[in-house]
Amino acid sequence: MSVAENPDNVTIPKPADHGFNLITPFKYLDKPDLSRAVLLVLNQSLVGMNIPQLWSNTKLHVCADGGANQLYEFFEEDEAARSQHIPEFIVGDLDSLTDETRSYYESKGSIVIPQLTQYATDFDKALTVSRLYFYSEEMRAKVQDYKNIDEHDGLAQLESEVQNPQPGAEDIFVYALGGIGGRFDQTIASIHQLYKISEKYKYIDLIFITSSDTVFLVDKGINYIEYESKGLWNSKDAVPVCGLLPLGSTKVILNTKGLKYDVTDWESDMLGNVSSSNGICGVNGVIVETTEAIVMNIVVDHHTVN
């Protein structure tokens, strides 16, 4: 078990072995085809985020209940911009959605889908809408015909009709705004979602974006976290801060290439070693090999994002 310090910039090529997981948490900034990308707005302040940029590089925009209030308030001083950022769907038990917000977005064409069941969170319901929307044209039409969706758990009933795509199907990228920070129980619920989605829906890439971080799950095995350049998402820091956080139930053994402090055969768990306040040195990517899934956060400077 060892630690090695790297210079601020190192080039780390993709692993020679083809059996690695490719993770692209900043794909929305590379401006490729993001026709299967979702911006999912949760009920947490959007201050400090570049909403117009995130919006323009995603195909579908879904607010989870009070997330619509946050979006509405974000543009409170710019009605012209507000009217250009209309979510396709607002979904949840609607206990937080204000009448003013609902009336405004419905008048602009948003589909509001009440789902009153308490056996799923508003985040779950918004994710279900996203999955159904991209599943097939037939299922998309059923979701858009919202008046026929049972208000208690109609989305769950629709989801029971679909199956997971075959291996190799095109991924859905879900960029969730908020969910990390704020109330601690909601943060833990978001971390739970990372693990649950990774296990249940291998074709969904869930990435949380906050005012300071990008947070995602690094799966068991060899992973290459790829990006166009560090400056694309953080030009302020020569070595953007990152953390490898063993928030699962099992001790992990880590091997990394491209971090400020690379580790070899390094045991990590919540009662032992934790690699927080590490840094990204890889010019275009880093390698993280782990024996079990682990949460990774990378500090982002949203003023960099154009």
Taking pLDDT < 50 over at least 5 consecutive residues as the criterion, the unreliable ranges are none
Shape: globular
* Structural domains: how many: 2
Tally of DSSP helical segments: 9
Strand content: 25-35%
CATH class category label of the largest domain: Mainly Beta
Do you know the CATH topology of the largest domain? Jelly Rolls
Query: For the CA atoms, what is the radius of gyration?
Result: 20 Å
Mean model confidence by pLDDT = 92
Named CATH architecture of the largest domain? Sandwich
- Strand and helix order: EEHEHEHHEHEHHHEHEEEEEEEEEE
**Largest sheet, order of strands side by side?**
6-5-4-3-7-8-9-17-11-15
Spatial gap, N to C terminus: 41 Å
Structural class: alpha/beta
Tell me the CATH superfamily of the largest domain: Thiamin pyrophosphokinase, thiamin-binding domain
The number of strands is: 17
Largest sheet: 10 strands, mixed
Percent helix = 10-25%
GO biological process, one term: thiamine metabolic process
Organism: [Candida] railenensis
InterPro entries: Thi_PPkinase, Thiamin_pyrophosphokinase_euk, Thiamin_PyroPKinase_B1-bd, TPK_B1-bd_sf, TPK_catalytic, TPK_catalytic_sf
Family: Belongs to the thiamine pyrophosphokinase family.
